[in-house]
Amino acid sequence: MSRSDDDLKDSAVHPLARSALATRALSRLRNALGEAGRILDDENVAERVRRVAVASDFAIDTLARQPALLSKLIADQGANAVQPPLLEPSVRSDWPALLRRYRTAESTRLIWRDVLGLDGVDDTLAGSTRLAERCLETALAALEAEFVQRHGVVRDREGREQRLVVFGLGKLGGEELNFSSDVDLVYTYEHDGESDGERPLAAETYFARLGQQLARLLDEMTADGFCHRVDLRLRPYGNAGRVAWSFAAMEQYFQHEGRDWERYAWQKARPVAGDIEAGERFLEMLRPFVYRRYLDYGALDGLRAMKAAISAEVARKELADDIKRGPGGIREIEFLAQALQLIRGGREPALRGRRLLPTLQALVEAHHVGEEAGTQLADAYRFLRGLENRLQMLRDAQTHALPGGDEDRARIAVALGYSGWESLRNELDTQRGRVTAEFEALLAPRRRVTDADELTVYWRALPDSGDSAVLAAAGFDEASAADGLLRDLARSPGVRGLSDQARTRLDRVLPALLNAAAQSSEPMLALRRLLALLQNILRRSAYLALLDEQPAALARLVEAVSRSALLAERLAAYPLLLDELLDVRVVGPLPGREALIAACTSVEEEDGDAEATLQALNEVRQALSFRIAMAVRDGRQPAVESAQQLAWLADGVVMRVLALAEQEVAAAHGRVPGARFAVLGYGSLGGEELGFGSDLDLVFLYDTPEGEGAHSDGARPLEASRWFARLAQKIVALLGAVTGAGRLFDVDVRLRPDGAKGLLVSSLASFTDYQRTRAWTWEHQALVRARGVAGDVSLCEEFERVRSQTLSIAREISTLNADVVSMRRRMRAELDRSDAAAFDLKQGEGGLVDLEFLMQTAVLRASNVNPALLLPRNTPGLIEAAREAAQIDAATAESLHDAHALLLARGLDCTLDRRPRRVPCDERIDAARAAIRMSARAQGLDFAEES
Question: Which of 148, 236, 492, 791 to pair with 472, CA 20 to 30 A apart?
């Protein structure tokens, strides 16, 4: 809405700026200023005053009443805010006048800077907000002191002082208050109690009276006007509810009776006076009411209802030219941004801002609003808010309606830098049209199956009628079986118990699902999986709303469940994953190692509740794992990268669980001073080749400066070995604990020194000695893929030193080969599930384990002369290191890379479809097996069974 300096100069020479109106304003100010009126002889000063006079009768009236203010504005161009008054207890009768004069003076300063182009719209909104806050703070401080004198201080049962918390809602809470707005306030206090003075009052009475007096001091009309209009109707039950509420009563209300419009209102809530810290604590308590943990498309229904009510009011009162409530007005921009916040804010904290313009930018950055649309909405918002301010600045009236008179229209237009009303009106219509287009696109029903659709008619006739021939015609080969499943669903208590709104949604969603399932490659399989999911979400209206509102999510759902048993199973078990189907990131690039780890380690503790923390962590793991699975299923990234990402995700989980376990053990037994602890990942975790549903091979190390004699420093001390054994047990237990989101991981600790017979946790010294003197060759093989995944960095570095020294011991090649071959043949005899029909991708001859053994042997054979072999842990890295160390040639390396990628991809495909990792042999599988077999034999490793 901002106009250029040239535009503003042009507006100054408009006839209005030289009109009788401007001349009268100058004359009036000269009379008010007396001798000081000579300042207006300066033409530059006079021109500024004329421009202000065109824009605001209120400003000229204030300058005439407070003559000293003009000199101040001229001197510093209004750069410095007017200071709030001191409300002395001895002259209480002066308080209303002092507050009102302060408010009018500071408001006039804001007009001066706005009209002269010294401030933009954002500055004026922020200035109006600060003005209201200072008035509230000043008035409340004076009243509180008075109440303390009369009634004492309110204290809770523990004797702690309680203060009133004043919440600002609406534009005050959003720090975007318009020039002549009322202020929406809600009064609360943290705990019940009683004041400790000679005339004690219960907390509710005390704070209700204090709040009422605060409203009266600001709101009452006096000879000096008003300070701020106060609206208390946004409190629970509105005018019928109590004036001040305890936090507990408020929380109880919102849990049981909170309505959609209150969620919108409390999005912008902010403590603006009184006990600010307590207010922030309450907002944190209220966050789950405002922002749901899932994608909340049900919020759109509430928004539609609110918009319909406003539209009816606009039509009834003929408010089409209301730039706040009318079509394409301010309210539509606010609703659009707030609706997207409510839908996604529970999942994305960056979207929980109170201010509209930063929220729009956050929505653009999160790709929920297009960049061009975001820019247009921001421009429209600034234009409309700037126009709204000027409408109100004219006479300090709380109006949002365009003026009807020609003179007022001309004054508004010219003061804003337009040539006239027609020019301004054209710009207004353009901006409102853009807003309406974006708003209606958000609220338009995303999918509606017409009554004429045969699948819709069929479904609505169930369970008593309906012809299964409709299903056959749609594409279901087993129409009779499908008909039976759908009749069972229609008869189920879950469907019969739905609310009218939820049933309406189901009646739209289910025919769309049937149609999509019928078009899939396996319609009956898709249908069975979809119905299992529907049974789980029938009582969760937000998920039905998501599928109803978003056809993209519905289409992805059908695709996912028809192509992957694992995804279908997880969606049915954890409907929260439905959110991922609509997350824009699910089809974009996947996060890297640091982002995956940060997503896990940043999971906050849930009020000391370990189970709730684990559930939150598992929800993060499930969502990210689901995203990786979708990328595999869609072929958007190689299997090698997906397996690596799953390992990184597990790293983050183990890090977070370690922190939680340490906290719990330390709370009971203190900590071991100076001690270090590390979690080592072996197997597929260490080798960064984790699958979906894989367990974690973990080994635990510790080290203390005092050796075995160290003890923890808590009230119930433990010697170091027992303390760390307790910590390791806690980690294993937490990883395997069942929560509402399932368990994190199964853990295998059998790769520790001495296996199942050994201690769960090894000291660094004992681990080192074991690896050097007693470990078997196969244990050194396992060490090739081992790495530190969590815990003390320096201890992980010590482990790396021990690992390198152990693996680089010079070995007799024939003995090494014999040990490796012997172990591999024993494993195959016990674990290989290959048969004439199918090949075991992992344990079969020429499979992934053969390749792992081949690479491990290369490290054990040659790392004493080629230390670079010690660096990689994953198979592709080991293949490259072996090539660079001349253990294999380039052609062999290429064939092994191809074989590894193929076998890993086929294995992940099996896992995604909940099939054993056994596949029929084909030309590519045969080639991969042959490459591994030939490479192993070239190294003296014949893993085939002896004849």
Answer: 492
509-566, pLDDT tens digit by residue? 899 889 888 888 788 888 988 888 888 888 777 778 777 777 777 777 888 888 788 8
Q: For the packed helices 848-862 and 875-884, what is the interaxial angle rounded to 10 degrees?
A: 40
Q: Cα-flanking dihedrals φ and ψ of residue 563, to 5°?
A: -105, -10
Instruction: Reply yes or no on whether the pLDDT at 452 is more than 80.
Output: no
Please answer whether residues 179 and 123 qualify as being in contact, where contact means their C-beta atoms are separated by less than 8 angstroms.
no
Closest CA to 762 of 749, 777, 747, 773: 749
Tell me, what DSSP letter sits at residue 739? Answer: B
Task: In whole angstroms, give the CA distance from residue 529 to residue 829.
Answer: 37
3-class DSSP string for 677-727: EEEEEEHHHHCCCCCCCCCEEEEEEEECCCHHHCECCCCCCCEHHHHHHHH
For residue 322, the 8-state DSSP code is B
CATH number of 808-947: 1.20.120.330
Higher per-residue confidence, 663 vs 447: 663
Partnered with residue 186 across adjacent β-strands are 167
% of the chain beyond a pLDDT of 70:
93
Closest CA to 649 of 615, 625, 665, 614: 625
CATH of 7-118, one of 1.10.4050, 1.20.120, 1.10.287, 2.60.40: 1.10.4050
Q: Are 807 and 859 in contact (CB under 8 A)?
A: yes
Q: How far apart are the C-alpha atoms of 514 and 817, rounded to whole Å?
A: 58
Average pLDDT of every residue of the chain: 89
Least confident stretch, 138-147, 206-215, 743-752: 743-752
Q: In what order do the strands lie in the sheet with 194-195?
A: 161-162, 154-155, 194-195
Closest CA to 51 of 390, 321, 314, 379: 390
Domain ranges of the chain: 7-118, 299-443, 448-582, 583-804, 808-947
When pLDDT is averaged across residues 894-906 and rounded to a whole number, the result is 95
Rounded Cα distance between 854 and 816, Å, is 12
Query: Over 50: is that where the pLDDT of 4 sits?
Result: no
8 A C-beta contact, residue 138 and residue 88: no
Q: What global pTM score does this model have?
A: 0.70
Which H or E run contains 540?
none
296: helix, strand or coil? coil
> Out of 490-504, 604-618, 679-693, 716-730, which region has the weakest mean confidence (pLDDT)?
604-618
d(CA 520, CA 630): 17
Domain 299-443, CATH class in plain words: mainly alpha
Tokens 């025919």 correspond to 511
Mean pLDDT of 455-474: 90
Q: For residue 155, what are the β-bridge partners?
A: 161, 194
Q: What is the spatial distance between Cα 270 and Cα 43, in angstroms, rounded to a whole number?
A: 45
Environment class of residue 426 by beta-carbon count within 10 Å: exposed (0-12), middle (13-18) or buried (19+)?
A: exposed
Per-residue pLDDT averaged across 648-661, rounded?
Answer: 96
Helix 95-115 with 43-55: angle, nearest 10 deg: 110
687-691, 741-745, 780-784: least confidently modelled range:
741-745
The second-level CATH assignment, the architecture, of 583-804 is 2-Layer Sandwich (3.30)
